[in-house]
Amino acid sequence: MSTIEMTAADFEKTITENEIVLVDFWASWCGPCRMFAPIFAAASDQHTDIVFAKVDTEAEQGLAAAAGITSIPTLMAFKRGALVFSQPGALPAQALDQVVTAVRELDIEKARREAKSA
To answer: What PROSITE patterns does the record point to (predicted)?
Structure first.
């Protein structure tokens, strides 16, 4: 699956209606964003069961602000609508694969139960 462009209009629906969603917050003027883009695109081709989405922080300033984006690129991962990972900086391919593996293996229901009891 190729990456999709995400806007404020479809953000919530996308993260709640899909099992796993990885979101790359980026801008065209950002050098590290341009370096990370082909890594993110290659991962989207490799992991076709995951939604890979990109948010242009220039076009979607309100969404970027609502998501608390202070540095780009920032990668966020959602599982069943819950934010489970957020990290600024361009990741190398191996690190992105580790994030994908960790998100896949995360027992989100157990994590939610533990969060409620904490």
So the answer is: THIOREDOXIN_1 (PS00194), THIOREDOXIN_2 (PS51352)
